[in-house]
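User: Show me a protein chain along with its predicted structure.
Assistant: Here is one chain, sequence first, then structure tokens.
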Amino acid sequence: MASAPKDKAAKPAGSRIDQQMIRDLADLLNETGLTEIEWNEGALKVRVTKGGTVMAAAPMPAYAPAPAVSGGAAAPSAAASDDANHPGAVKSPMVGTVYVAPEPGAAAFVKVGDSVNAGQTVLIVEAMKTMNPITAPKGGRVARILIENQQPVEFGQVLLVIE
């Protein structure tokens, strides 16, 4: 019994690794799709990273639709630039997964050609298991929908365009 307190006293209080905290951070990485997370408390700094093919696989969907567009490689980049600068561009306010309908099997919030009102929910972006409604910044007609259901999206990515 005398040796147990000695072992604890030999370690400085800040040098103990909280394995459960590291497991919780790793679970958070998996739940959110992030590849790195860092946590600080006083002098303690913990960084958990997830390697593998996650980062390599993420860009693949972005390149897959390009060949389906006719008009060459210059057309998609010019169109993407125009969409990003369009006053009716609806951009993702966060990194997450986009959903076009309120629940699986339900009709989409909007389709190309639909009229929308300012403030109307047009999509949902899920981030950290929270469903965030994305609303139309202005009224008008949905000209283009640039994403697919359950697609990962980045902060600032144009999701759809309202004219």
